[in-house]
Specification:
Keywords: Signal
Radius of gyration: 25 Å
Number of domains: 1
Signal peptide: 1-17
Strand content: under 5%
Helix content: over 70%
Number of strands: 0
């Protein structure tokens, strides 16, 4: 009897949790700033870190960013 009652309570808890489920609201603004800070850390840490992670040195990466802004019309 105890097993049936505990199974019933577990199932009841599982069903009630389905009704109270709320999707997680992500803050894309915070994600953007976190990603931007991560890229800054990769680039400005050292040339070795930049080459390992981005596959180009810092000077080349900054030239690429400048080209994307001037020629591609991207904002910084």
């Amino acid at each position: 009897m105890f097993t049936v009652a505990s199974w019933f309570l577990v199932m009841l808890g599982g069903v009630s949790s389905l009704h109270t489920y709320k999707p997680m609201i992500r803050s894309y603004i915070l994600d953007f700033y976190a990603q931007r800070d991560y890229v800054k850390k990769l680039i400005h840490a050292s040339d070795k870190t930049c080459i390992e992670q981005v596959r180009m040195n810092r000077v080349t990466f900054l030239k690429l960013c400048e080209m994307l802004q001037t020629l591609g019309g991207l904002k910084s």
